[in-house]
């Protein structure tokens, strides 16, 4: 029995090998037949460490990350040929109401339908923690303790990812022995607050032995550090304090066969205080590690650029500028040369030649809702700006010369595209809009025709618009932020990558805004500290502070002084600043606003229009439906049948 107990077949997540000196995630052990073999020396143990890393979700992957395709911010044509070319868009199917209990889409419980097997990941983390002490003297204690801390964090993170997806989960604190009884194997889902406390405990245990910064940047960028651990702890506690999980009456009847209530019925305001403290701790530690100010675009490699273009690029390139000073935790596994990546599915065609020789499938399209979300150029929502012509926003007018870095001068475009803040132009490509990059790195009017920034054209029959019914952005918008500006299409339409991008799992602006939110919720009224951290984010976009902007430019000037109104302002700021980075998906769930947003029609411009008059008409693309049960993923029916101690999530 002992020899059989020692025998464990290592189940390794398949990963694409990409040549790079820092591809730590690409190294996984092969044919590890026994635990003793895996941990007989430093090399084998390190491979098992990388196995624990290999289960990290595919952040920024349209086919595998539910946050990219699963919300109301990006839409695609509902055409099966796209799925064959780009991967199965399970997240898009989920928001169309196709989630089910027989064979769940993006199943992270079991690892099917493009989900990662996170309980298996936790099992492998436990294997590592239970056996790392077997390694001989070639593994120094300091390095061993660091590895243990990394794996404790990963174990915590996998529990956390499951928690926000499924709600209360079984806590796999240690692996069951092979001799475990049937009753021991039939685990229970534990109360939500107990899950939170256990995850926090694991992170707290890991923090002392994690490095403040990565010393070996050539080989270890992306490995877990103290700032990463503290930011994820803060994000977890903000989630736990939010409406979905804090006193949500919809979950009051979740009681298992022990009679244990999985959620507390009462809202606990002290959770916000705990979250605020965690956020501030994360910010302070990030500052010690060098994450002490937001990213700014450096244009030293190019001829002089206008201040306008540099500001736009500061807001845009923060996502793709590899390991820039704002990215606390990034994922390098997305490469802009791959046809099914976020980048390749976003980048429009710029010329008719590219469109006639298609490579890539530019079908990811921001919705009109997102275009309306961004502020006016005076830093307030367009529907409350006291000078913005909101009622006529869909009507057209010629773009003035003062907008030349945003829109082609004289181009007849929707008023919605004029007089907007820089982040609008950093995030969205639209008909007549300026696009810096794709092989052209000079400002409008600053170079030859082959050097000056692009003007994209999105009406029917034009390169970036509807051509043959495939490979076009259905709403009339293309996302800019996911695309490295140095990535360019070749003459045949293929993408010539600038190098590997770093998709931000967590960046500094995120923790600033989480802190502003948590602090506002913990106080009776917002104070200067709340304003400080939201204003730091606004400053990069060239906007005045919240109080000044609302006092001068809003029809409702008193909003920032009120806790409830400030909550709305902070939420809009998060949705703007972190647009198309996967944060909105989780935010609208924890805020319980998805039942409102995901039941509104998805709209865009008339992509069949060939003239200005025809094109600039708002059309409904789809009318999605979202019900309260969809706040949590369903557990597979087969799992419930095999373990009668598990209960299904409400509504499923």
Q: Termini separation (Å)?
A: 41 Å
Give the percentage of residues in beta strands: 5-15%
Mean pLDDT: 90
Low-confidence stretches: 1-33
What is the general shape?
globular
Please describe the biggest sheet, giving its number of strands, its sense, and whether it closes into a barrel. 2 strands, antiparallel
How are strands sequenced across the largest beta sheet? 1-3
What is the helix content? Answer: 25-40%
The helix-and-strand class reads mainly alpha
Instruction: Kindly provide the radius of gyration, computed on alpha-carbon positions and rounded to a whole number of angstroms.
Output: 25 Å
The tally of helices reads 25
How many individual β-strands?
14
Walk me through this protein's architecture:
The structure is a single chain. With 652 residues, the protein is mainly α. The protein is 36% helix and 7% strand. The protein is built from 25 helices and 14 strands. The protein has helices at 2-6, 35-38, 42-53, 66-69, 80-86, 90-95, 118-131, 141-166, 182-185, 192-206, 217-220, 226-241, 270-288, 307-316, 352-356, 368-373, 422-427, 508-522, 528-540, 546-553, 563-577, 583-590, 594-597, 612-615, 637-642, and strands at residues 74-75, 327-331, 365-366, 396-398, 412-414, 428-430, 434-435, 454-455, 477-479, 488-489, 495-496, 503-507, 602-605, 618-622. The strands form seven sheets. The protein has a two-stranded antiparallel sheet with strand order 1-3. Strands 2-12 form a two-stranded antiparallel ribbon. Strand 10 (488-489) and strand 11 form a beta hairpin. Helix 10 packs antiparallel against helix 12 and helix 12 (226-241) runs antiparallel to helix 13. The protein starts with a helix and ends in a 10-residue tail after the last helix. Residues 1-33 have low confidence and may be disordered.
């Amino acid at each position: 029995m002992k020899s059989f107990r020692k025998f464990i077949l290592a189940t390794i997540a398949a990963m694409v090998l990409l040549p790079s000196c820092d591809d730590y995630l690409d190294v996984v052990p092969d044919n590890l037949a026994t635990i003793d073999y895996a941990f007989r020396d430093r090399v084998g143990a390190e491979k098992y460490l990388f196995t624990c890393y290999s289960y990290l979700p595919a952040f920024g992957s349209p086919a595998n990350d539910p946050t990219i395709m699963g919300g109301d911010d990006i839409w695609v044509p509902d055409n099966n040929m796209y799925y064959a070319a780009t991967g199965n868009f399970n997240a898009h199917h989920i928001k169309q109401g196709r989630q089910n209990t027989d064979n769940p889409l993006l199943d992270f419980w079991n690892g099917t339908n493009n989900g990662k097997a996170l309980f298996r990941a936790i099992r492998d983390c436990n294997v590592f923690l239970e056996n790392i002490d077997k390694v001989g003297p070639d593994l120094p204690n300091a390095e061993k303790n660091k590895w243990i801390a990394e794996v404790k964090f990963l174990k915590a993170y996998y529990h956390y990812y499951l928690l926000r997806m499924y709600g209360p989960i079984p806590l796999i604190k240690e692996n069951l022995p092979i001799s475990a009884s049937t009753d021991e194997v039939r685990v229970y889902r534990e109360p939500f607050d107990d899950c939170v406390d256990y995850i926090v405990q694991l992170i707290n245990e890991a923090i002392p032995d994690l490095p403040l910064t990565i010393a070996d940047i050539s080989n270890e960028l992306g490995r877990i550090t103290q700032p990463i651990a503290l930011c994820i702890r803060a994000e977890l506690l903000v989630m736990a304090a939010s409406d979905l999980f804090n006193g949500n009456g919809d979950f009051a009847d979740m009681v298992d066969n022990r009679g244990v209530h999985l959620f507390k019925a009462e809202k606990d305001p002290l959770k916000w205080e705990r979250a605020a403290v965690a956020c501030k701790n994360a910010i302070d530690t990030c500052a010690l590690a060098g994450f002490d100010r937001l990213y700014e675009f450096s244009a030293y490699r190019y001829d002089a650029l206008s201040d306008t273009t540099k500001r736009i690029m500061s807001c845009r390139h923060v996502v793709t500028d590899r390991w820039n000073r704002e990215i606390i935790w990034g994922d390098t596994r997305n490469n802009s040369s791959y046809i099914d990546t976020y980048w390749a599915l976003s980048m429009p065609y710029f010329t008719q030649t590219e469109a006639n020789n298609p490579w890539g499938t530019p079908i990811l399209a921001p919705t009109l809702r997102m275009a309306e979300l961004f502020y006016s150029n005076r830093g307030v929502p367009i529907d409350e700006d006291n000078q913005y012509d909101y009622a006529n926003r869909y009507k057209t007018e010629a773009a003035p010369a003062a907008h030349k870095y945003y829109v082609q001068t004289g181009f007849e475009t929707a008023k919605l595209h004029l007089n907007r803040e820089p982040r609008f132009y950093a995030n969205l490509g639209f008909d007549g809009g300026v696009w810096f990059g794709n092989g052209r790195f000079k400002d409008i009017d600053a170079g030859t025709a082959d050097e000056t920034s692009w003007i994209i054209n999105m009406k029917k029959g034009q390169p970036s618009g509807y051509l043959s019914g495939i490979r076009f952005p259905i709403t009339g918008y293309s996302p800019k932020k996911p695309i490295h500006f140095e990535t360019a299409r070749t003459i045949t339409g293929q993408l010539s990558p600038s190098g590997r991008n770093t998709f931000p799992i967590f960046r500094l602006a995120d923790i600033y805004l989480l802190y502003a939110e948590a602090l506002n919720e913990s106080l009776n009224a917002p104070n200067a500290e709340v304003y400080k951290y939201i204003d730091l984010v606004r400053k990069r976009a060239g906007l005045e502070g919240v109080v000044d902007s609302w006092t001068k430019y809003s029809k409702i000037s008193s909003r920032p002084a009120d806790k409830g109104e400030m909550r709305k302002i902070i939420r809009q700021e998060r949705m703007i600043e972190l647009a198309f980075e996967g944060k909105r998906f989780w935010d609208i769930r924890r805020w319980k606003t998805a039942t409102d947003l995901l039941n509104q029609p998805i709209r865009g411009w008339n992509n069949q229009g060939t003239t200005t008059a025809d094109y600039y008409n708002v059309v409904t693309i789809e009318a999605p439906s979202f019900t309260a049960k969809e706040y949590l993923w369903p557990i597979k029916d087969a799992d419930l049948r095999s373990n009668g101690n598990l209960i299904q999530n409400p509504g499923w």
